[in-house]
Amino acid sequence: MHITPTLIKKRENGKYLLIIFDDNTKFNISSELLRVESPSADIQGHGGPKILVRNKTNVLIDKIEPVGNYAIRIIFSDNHGSGIYSWELLYDFGKNHEMYLEKYYNSL
Length: 108
Description:
The chain has 4 helices and 6 strands; from the N terminus they run βββααβββαα. By secondary structure, it is α+β, with helices and mostly antiparallel strands. The chain has a single domain (5-107), classed as 2-Layer Sandwich (NE0471 N-terminal domain-like), CATH 3.30.2020. The protein has a 3-stranded antiparallel β-sheet with strand order 1-2-3. A 3-stranded antiparallel β-sheet has the order 4-5-6.
């Protein structure tokens, strides 16, 4: 599947990422989900187990930076900003938002 966003912006002072894709799919992805599932190596455990990130209910999106024409980097209010979010990953997060959050809350 090759999808690209037509709109990406922060909503509610950074509590959500609004993303609309070229197939007209629209998602509001919570900053909490984006932060706790960050694709960064330090969270995903490249070289070790995945890290369970806690206490990010109130984290906000501070800044969104483009990465080529395939992804964005998100800088959060807790200064985390090393994850690169591909279009496919963001689509997956949007489509499966509830499942990801439920799995996260169950693991806490």
